[in-house]
Design a protein that fits this description.
heterodimer, A: 883 residues, alpha/beta, FAD/NAD(P)-binding domain, Enolase-like, domain 1, 7 domains, 24 helices, 40 strands, 28% helix, elongated, B: mainly beta, Rieske Iron-sulfur Protein, four-stranded antiparallel β-sheet, three-stranded antiparallel β-sheet
Chain lengths: 883, 115
């Protein structure tokens, strides 16, 4: 259906590839069928097809028919005149006519040049025959015809008894696709690539190396850094003058029954050049895809446009499909007037595809280009994994993913929008621990955020809605983040979002900086005041330093710990200032009973100790006997009034499994029996535990000593971990954790004797006691100060405080007294004899059945067994986990 | 079990001598109440006052008498929930506890009148 001339403008499109086809679709979508009479010239005799899919056709994965975007009939249906197989040679700009190869002239009002690009054939001896045609058996990999020919040859050669050989010149994206396709047909394929690594346009050298290994593992040979300088041909007599091999610059040669050249593309600019348009690498266009500097016409400014691979915009030419689509959208807006101000600003190129079976995504820059660029790389060559990000001035400017491209969408979004990046750049590649910023918005209101205290996102938002505007305020109101603390970051983020969503501003409760909530001073200020005023009891601290002299229940435990540290001998012990665990030297359980963990230094015990433990468990109806993670034995379910008798019968010291103190020193078998041991870890562990037993610290402190780097006692994830490395040397690590947080400890120093380990450990402990905040574990303390700073102070003695620390820790250790000796003279009436609960039958934890491990004889079962309530109980920060 | 003196005086049941409760600490007692018995946690504040509330925390059965106190609140030792000892209201979002009458008689005896 032809349109009436005169009512519509004549639009001529030269080029029927992917860019041209996309433009037609975009134009039709904007109603251009009524505005323009469209004529399309395509030099291939087909409708338009998806060139990207040619590699699938070559690989035999898709048939030709499946790659057509629009077949010939589509043009007629849409009133478009398609001149398929007709090549345009020239444009007569003044006359506004295109000139085709047959000499025919077609007038236009609007002209769009979308002539695409052609394979680049580097200069090679013997490439062309005398008539200028390619040597038989040599081909580019660009068009459907080339693909058909390659397919036919591959099928013919691939079925031979000895595999035919194919050489692919150029190891970029297309070359690797061609190689894989030919290999699928049974050919023995070698890729020869002139740059030093594969896909050098998209990947840096390391990523290229990983890709190379994957390609080679797939059975394709790869030669890099090698330029092909010549092709050899069969003699006319023996063959048909076909190609027989390639010769490299360094003299190596490879036999070849077929050669595919994929050494890049060149924009097809002939038409533009002949027309007299500005052509550099491509036909130069402005932001509306209009060719620059074209002569004015009587009808107004020049109406010649270019898009696709033949166009050069702001100095860039593109060889990927995404930019072409963006250009087509802009041009359709401009031509139809749908958006006369539409402008193309260039594309940030990114690719995500499967190259020869390997997933590859490349976004922006492949590697660092400026000296200040941050480059974070993860590489696992054996598994074919390579992931990297390039960050400049806090913005993502490049990312490469090889082997695992699941992060592509997220990275693309960050790249496109210039979103703020996580402080730990590696989180761009891996989800580390807590929920990341942004995703909290996706959480449902009933999603549980704090698993310890069962607080949902809705609870947190509710607290904000009812007036809390600080993170601490919300945490106090909901108890979110007050269990193990691992959700604090997510809680903070939700509070920030909720406060912002309500139009408010986040406030900071100044008390977050105080050592304890009831005394408005930071730790250093508090320590100074306590020393200056010589305050030796908790009640005197409240009287002197708290507002109005008011005591505060939640501050008592922290102050007790601090005063014991500051006054090892002068401390006035007020038992009400201690947490219940520290009053009765056992860990309170959910049913009001206690757990008893005797000291078992270094995890080493004796038959006699085990017999006593067994006897005590029988005698007092211990509900469960459990081997702890800290290498000792936990006796659970002991009544408070039985504690002194249990200790007496055990006649072992307290294991301090309840306190904010040094808990235990785990050890491995060491040198006595282990055939790998490099140092006597057991003896050193016992010595450490004996030295530092019971010493108070801002939060619990777990130690480990291992006799070799096999790390059987997990020293790398301890607050202080010691590792024998042979030759009498020991490494001392600090700040590790494997609880609610997992962190590998930092190496503090390598020392050359057990005595030096003990000295450095003591120095670190006292340093932590002095500067650590209440309940701050070493895994927060060490990163807060930085391991470099800790090392300067403790190893290099940069601040001249080592002698004092050594002296102070000596005094603290000397003040040790086994608290279980208090059984002989309890500090107060009813200390143990007055049970708190249960006085009446209450829900209790069911005992293990008779005969089960840790089970209780039936006659000792409590009278009434009630199922416990279903609520999950998790130890709070103070109750502490048992070890 | 702690024995309770069941002599009824004008001001409740004598549960202990004040000297038996160290300053700043609490103890739990079973007190007769109407037809049955009630468990009461009695606290001896450092300023000499006494307070009494239900002995069992409504959140998960924690022993409040083993909790830490100041002049206003008790902190449950299990999960650190807090209750105002004067009103029984929780300051950490839990159900309230009952406040029981308590006084110290002239002989230094602590007397509880269940609510």
């Amino acid at each position: 259906m032809k349109k009436e001339q005169g009512s519509t403008k004549r639009l001529v499109l030269v080029g029927n590839g992917m860019a041209g086809a996309r433009l037609l679709e975009e134009l039709l979508e904007r109603g251009a069928g009524d505005l323009f009479q469209i004529t399309v010239f395509g030099d291939e005799p087909y409708g338009n097809y998806n060139r990207i899919m040619l590699s699938h056709v070559l690989a035999g994965e898709d048939g030709e028919e499946s790659i057509y975007l629009n077949e010939l009939g589509w043009y007629a249906e849409n009133g478009i005149e398609l001149r398929a197989g007709v090549r345009v040679d020239d444009v007569d700009l003044p006359a506004r006519e295109v000139v085709d190869a047959d000499g025919g002239r077609t007038p236009y009002d609007v002209l769009v040049i979308a002539t695409g690009s052609s394979p680049h054939f580097p200069p090679m001896d013997g490439l062309r025959r005398e008539d200028g045609s390619l040597l038989p058996g040599v081909s580019g990999f660009r068009s459907l015809d080339e693909t058909r020919a390659m397919l036919e040859e591959a099928r013919r050669y691939g079925t031979g008894t000895t595999p035919a050989k194919a050489v692919v010149i150029g190891g970029g994206l297309l070359g690797l696709e061609a190689a894989k396709g030919l290999q699928n047909h049974g050919l023995d394929v070698t890729v020869i690539h002139s740059p030093a690594h594969l896909m050098n346009q998209q990947l840096d050298a390391d990523a290229g190396a990983v890709l190379r290994r994957s390609i080679e593992e797939a059975g394709i040979s790869v030669v890099t850094g090698a330029r092909t300088t010549g092709l050899t041909a069969c003699t006319e007599q023996s063959g048909s003058g076909r190609v027989s091999g390639v010769v490299l610059k360094d003299g190596r040669s490879f036999p070849a029954d077929m050669v595919v050249v994929t050494a890049g593309i060149r924009p097809n600019t002939d038409v533009g050049l002949r027309a007299g348009l500005v052509v550099e690498r491509g036909v130069v266009v402005d932001d509306q895809m209009r060719c620059v500097d074209q002569p004015e016409t009587p009808a107004g400014p020049g109406q010649v446009y270019a898009l696709g691979e033949c166009a050069q915009h702001r100095g860039e030419t593109y060889g990927l499909v995404a930019p072409l689509w963006e250009q087509a959208t802009v041009l359709a807006d401009v031509l139809t007037g749908a958006d006369p101000d539409a402008a193309y600003h260039g594309s940030r190129t990114s690719t995500k595809l499967k190259v020869a079976g390997v997933d590859v995504a490349a976004i922006g820059q492949a590697g660092p280009e400026h000296p200040d660029d941050e480059h974070v790389v993860f590489s696992d060559v054996r598994r074919g994994l390579y992931q990297s990000v390039v960050v400049r001035d806090g913005r993502l400017v490049g990312a490469t993913l090889l082997g695992d491209t699941r992060k592509t969408a997220a990275l693309q979004q960050v790249f496109d929008r210039g979103l703020p990046l996580p402080e730990q750049r590696v989180e761009l590649l891996f989800d580390l621990g807590a929920t990341a910023e942004g995703s909290v918005e996706d959480l449902a209101d009933d999603a549980q955020v704090c698993n310890c205290n069962g607080v949902t996102k809705g609870d947190i938002c509710g607290a904000v809605a009812s007036g809390c505007s600080s993170v601490k305020g919300v945490m106090d109101a909901t108890r979110a983040g007050k269990g193990c603390g691992s959700c604090k970051e997510v809680v903070s983020t939700i509070v920030e979002h909720a406060v912002a969503a309500g139009g408010g501003a986040l406030t900071e409760d100044p008390s977050v900086h105080w050592y304890v909530p009831g005394v408005p001073l930071r730790k250093d200020e508090l320590v100074a005041a306590i020393r200056e005023q010589h305050l030796t009891s908790v009640s005197s601290v409240f009287a002197a330093l708290a507002p109005g002299g008011a005591e505060d229940a939640k501050s008592k435990m922290g102050l007790t710990s601090l005063l014991r540290t500051l006054w090892p001998t002068e401390f006035v012990d007020e038992r009400d200032a201690r947490f219940i665990n520290d009053r009765v030297h056992a860990n309170i359980q959910r049913d009001g009973t206690f757990s008893v963990v005797p000291q078992m230094k270094g995890g080493v015990t004796t038959p006699d100790q085990l017999r006593r433990i067994a006897d005590v468990a029988d005698k007092y109806g211990v509900g469960m006997l459990k081997v702890t993670g800290g290498q000792r034995i936990d006796m659970l379910g002991v009544r408070k009034e039985d504690l002194p008798k249990v200790w007496e019968d055990l006649d072992m010291p307290s294991g301090y499994a309840y306190g904010k103190s040094m808990r235990t020193v785990k050890t491995c078998v060491g040198t006595d029996y282990c055939r790998f041991g490099l140092g006597d870890s057991t003896a050193l562990g016992i010595a450490l535990e004996e030295r530092f037993q019971g010493i108070e610290t801002p939060a619990k402190l777990k130690l480990g000593v291992v006799g070799c780097p096999r790390n059987c006692a997990e020293a790398y994830v301890k607050d202080v971990g010691v590792v024998a490395i042979g030759g009498g040397k020991w490494e001392v690590y600090v700040g590790g954790a494997a609880g609610a947080s997992v962190r590998k400890a930092d190496l503090l120093a390598t020392v050359d004797s057990p005595e030096a380990v003990i000295q450095l450990t003591g120095r670190f402990i006292q340093f932590y006691r002095t500067w650590g905040n209440w309940l701050e574990r070493t895994y927060d303390f060490v990163p807060r100060l930085s391991i470099e700073r800790v090392r300067l102070v403790l190893v290099e003695d940069s601040d001249g405080m080592c002698a004092q620390l050594d002296e102070e820790v000596d005094a603290a250790c000397a003040a040790y007294r086994d608290p279980w000796k208090e059984r002989e003279a309890p500090d107060a009436p009813g200390r143990f004899s007055a049970p708190a609960l249960p006085l009446l039958p209450l829900p209790v934890v069911p005992r293990r059945p008779m005969g089960a491990p840790g089970g209780t004889p039936r006659e000792q079962l409590p009278v009434e067994i009630v199922m416990p309530n279903e609520e999950a109980l998790v130890s709070g920060a103070m109750a502490g986990a048992q070890q | 079990m702690t024995a309770v003196d069941t002599r009824t005086a004008t001001s409740g049941v004598r549960v202990a001598a004040l000297a038996e409760i160290p300053p700043g600490e609490g103890r739990a007692y079973v007190v007769p109440s109407g037809a049955g018995e009630v468990q009461v946690a009695v606290f001896h504040h450092r300023d000499g006052r006494v307070s009494a509330v239900d002995a069992v925390c409504p959140h998960s059965g924690g022993p409040l008498a083993d909790g830490q106190i100041d002049s206003c609140v008790v902190v449950c030792p299990l999960h650190l929930n807090t209750w105002d000892l004067r009103t029984g209201e929780s300051t950490s979002g839990q159900a309230r506890v009952r406040v029981h009458g308590v006084s110290v008689d002239d002989d230094g005896g602590v007397r509880v009148t269940p609510a």
